[in-house]
User: What shape does this take?
Amino acid sequence: MRAVVAPRFGEAWELHERHRDPEPGSRDVVVEVIASGICYTDVGQLHDPVYGCKFPRVPGHEPVGRVVAVGPDVGDVAVGDIVGVAYSQRWCGACRYCMLGRYEHCSACTFTGITCDGGHAELMVMDAAAVERIPGGMDPVQAAPVMCAGFTVYSGICDAELRPGERCAVIGVGGLGHLGVQYAAALGAEVIAVTNSADKVAIVKELGASHVLLSEGETAGKLLQRCGGVDVILNTANGVAPDLALGLRPYGRISLLGACQHSFPVTPTQMSFGKFKIMGSSQGPRHRLREVLQLHLRSKARVVVEDYPLDDALAAFDRVRSGVARFRAVLVPG
Ligand SMILES: [Zn+2]
Ligand SMILES: [Zn+2]
Assistant: This one.
């Protein structure tokens, strides 16, 4: 089978031909990959030790495919099922974090495409306990980016307790952000998107944003303050504005979703007078994955996809790395 391989830290992807197909362990399934989204984390894990990637590695943590083999101890997933898997797999099932469904904090957990092989390949092994069935009627190419981008941004929306009628800002309209705009709008919020790409304005309005603010060198906090502030800020950009908290109304919430090492200052006075909250969010707990697949399907959300055959994986990666992919690059190995 063919697979993308990240050979070593700091080095470019390679396309390999492997002579042996993967076999399932007793509680695994083997999946013929139909679609595998490229997340910006695929770039970060090559250069930033914070991800803890183990090399060599088949990357890709947004895989969806058809089950072609099941291990002897798998009871509830069958050959032919269309399934996906998210970032976390192979948790212990017994620790306090597993009890909460927060497998990402389990010390036994492995991470798809990071510490176990992911979906940028023709075949992939998945832990049967971690797979999620894709709802009937949902296109696998649409479902794949929901496994990370959709799950992550929906978790941020839930953590921030966004309510219908509230104003929600989405900072950065890429893979996560363009889904965040659609989900927040579907949940009844007034959505204000902030982007530095003039070419995205029309499509982001089409996706459900009431207003799109072009940053043009202005900071997000000032831009949002000028239009009256918002109740929730979903920061999906790979950076954070130093004055972000300026954009909040009283009782506002900031959900930090984009991975970056920047910091932004807030004072206790600002926080106690404004009574706002700042939280870090990533995907989880598990039930939100099922919810977001349903939300995506039933609200007729759409991932704006650039699809590529496996042979063009390196070109697709370059488009993601340079920020020109609109809005999600997805590998389609078949
Ligand atoms: Zn991701
Ligand atoms: Zn555990």
Notes: Residues 223 and 247 are 7 Å apart (CA to CA). The longest strand covers residues 28-38. The pocket of zinc ion (ligand 1) is lined by residues 39, 41, 61, 148 (CB under 6 Å).
